């Protein structure tokens, strides 16, 4: 059903918008001090969701759920960033890359919050 493909693509786009907001939030904190709390909250919610879903992003789970309903051959295993970087750019991303970057962004945001 075409609806499931649209829903899977919306989950995919939501995922990359969230990643862009999280990564873009690091320099925004420097230029806009009022944004520090917002970015730290977003990073905290993202980190907690990683713990709750045992390292699996809920948006990846949602995307794969819809892809399985539309076309089971499109379902992938592993993190979203690993799958799409390999598919689009032929770049191998280590499996621990996303959690490492998340911890790094939390530490940087914490540094901005303290200063």
Question: Key terms for this structure?
Answer:
mainly alpha; 115 residues; 5 helices
Mean pLDDT across the residues is 89
The count of DSSP E runs of length 2 or more, i.e. the number of strands, is 0
Structural class: mainly alpha
Q: Give the fraction of residues assigned to helices.
A: over 70%
In short:
Helices cover 77% and strands 0% of the residues.
What's the SSE blueprint?
Blueprint: H1 2-31, H2 36-52, H3 58-70, H4 80-89, H5 97-114
Explained architecture:
With 115 residues, the protein is mainly alpha-helical. It has one domain. The protein has five helices and no strands. Helix 1 runs parallel beside helix 5. It is elongated. The N and C termini lie far apart (52 Å).
């Amino acid at each position: 059903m075409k609806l499931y493909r649209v829903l899977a693509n919306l989950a995919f786009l939501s995922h990359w918008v969230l990643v862009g907001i999280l990564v873009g939030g690091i320099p925004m904190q420097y230029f806009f001090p009022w944004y520090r709390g917002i970015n730290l909250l977003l990073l905290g919610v993202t980190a907690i969701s990683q713990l709750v879903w045992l390292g699996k992003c809920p948006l990846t789970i949602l995307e794969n759920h819809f892809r399985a309903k539309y076309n089971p051959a499109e379902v992938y295993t592993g993190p979203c960033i690993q799958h799409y970087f390999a598919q689009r750019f032929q770049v191998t991303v280590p499996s621990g890359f996303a959690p490492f970057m998340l911890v790094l962004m939390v530490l940087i945001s914490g540094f901005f919050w303290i200063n």
